[in-house]
Amino acid sequence: MKNHAKEFCIEKMAKILGVSCSGYYKYLNRPSSIRQMENMRLLGEIQKAYKKGRRMYGSPRIHRELKKNGETCSRKRIAKIMRQEKIQAKTRKHWKVTTKSNPKAKVAPHRLQQNFSVEVPNKIWVSDITYIETLEGWLYVTVVLDLFSRKAVGLSMGASLETGLVVRALEQALCHRKFSGSLIHHSDKGCQYTSKEFLKFTQAHRIELSMSGKGNCYDNAVAESFFHTLKTEHTNHYKFKTREEAMTSIFEYVEVFYNRQRLHSSLGYLSPDEYERGKKSKEVA
Predict the structure, then answer these.
(1) Which residues of the chain have pLDDT under 70?
(2) Model confidence over 28-45: pLDDT tens digits?
(3) Cα(230)–Cα(155) distance, rounded to whole angstroms?
(4) Would you call 234 helix, strand, or coil by DSSP?
C-alpha cells in the first residue's frame, strides 16, 4: 500500500486487501525495529563499498569489502539488501579473441599447459592484445600480467597494431620488475609475438617464450580474462571521442583501480598490490 499510495486511494486499497485504514497508518507511524535500523546502517556501508568498487561489485565482493572493514553480517543478508535496493554489478557482455596468427611463423612450445598457479613473482608473465573502439578509430592495447598476483606490470597502447606495441609493454614490465633466474613469457600465436623483432628482444633479455595451442583461448585464459574484465567493467560503458581519451581512461583504470583496489576472487578477494604485500610480509616474518 505504501509503495502505491501515489497511484491509488488508501481507502480503496484497504478495502480490497481486507485491512483497516487505521491499522495501515499505525504501521506507518510505528518505530523501526532494531534489525531495520541495522539494515539501514548496512545499506550505507554497502553503498560506500559499491561506489568504491566503481559500481562493478556484486554481493560476493561487497561482502568481502565489508568484512575487511570489520562487518560480521552474512553474505546472504548483504545480497538481500542489495536486491531490495536494486544495487547490482554492471552488466557483462560477451567477448571474442581478436588477434591473428601467422601460419608460417616459427612458434614457441606451449610450456604452461593451462597451469596458471605460480608461487613466486616474476617467473611467468602472460600477455595479449585487444582492440578498443573510439570515434577516431581503433585503439590497440597490450598488457603483461604477472601470473603470481595477476598484476598488470606492463601496459602499451597505440593506433597501430605493430610489433613495437608488444615490445613496449614488455619493456615497461622489465623496467618495473626485477627477475632472477628464468622468466617465461606466455602469449597466443599472434604475428606480433612470433615476429623476428619480438624474438630478438626476448632473447636479448634471456626470456623464455611459451605460446598457446592452435585455436584454444583457454591456454591464455588469464590474459584474455583481464581484457574481458577491462571491457565489461570499464570501456564498454564509455564512448571515447579520441584515442588519447581512451588511453588516459584505461591507464587510470588499470593503475589506480585494477592493480590497487579491485578485489580478485582468485587472490582471496585481495587486490594484486595487497596480495603481493601480504606475501612479502609473510616472507619477512
Answers:
(1) 1-2, 24, 27-28, 31-32, 90-105, 215-217, 280-285
(2) 677 667 888 888 888 888
(3) 13
(4) coil
CA distances from 129 to 4, 51, 155, 219, 285 (A): 52, 29, 10, 15, 39
Burial 70-83 (b: 16+ CB within 10 A, else e): ebebeeebbbebbe
Give this prediction's pTM: 0.71
Classify the phi-psi angles of 235: left when phi > 0, otherwise alpha if psi is within -120 to 50, otherwise beta. alpha
- Spatial separation of the C-alpha atoms in residues 224 and 109, rounded to whole Å: 19
32 vs 54: CA distance, rounded Å = 31
* Residue type at position 185: H
How many secondary structure helices (H) and strands (E) does the chain include? 10, 5
Summarize pLDDT for 197-217 with one digit per residue, the tens. Answer: 999 999 999 999 999 877 666
Cell of 229: 574484465
Partnered with residue 133 across adjacent β-strands are 138
Residue 270: what residue type?
L
DSSP strand pairing (208-211 vs 184-187): parallel
Q: Buried b vs exposed e over 228-254: b needs ≥16 C-beta within 10 Å?
A: bbbbbbbbbeeebeebebbbeebeebb
Least Cα distance to 194 among 112, 113, 100 occurs for 100
C-alpha–C-alpha distance, residues 18 and 157, integer Å: 66
Structure-block grid coordinates of residue 77: 543478508
Residues pairing with 131 in the sheet:
140
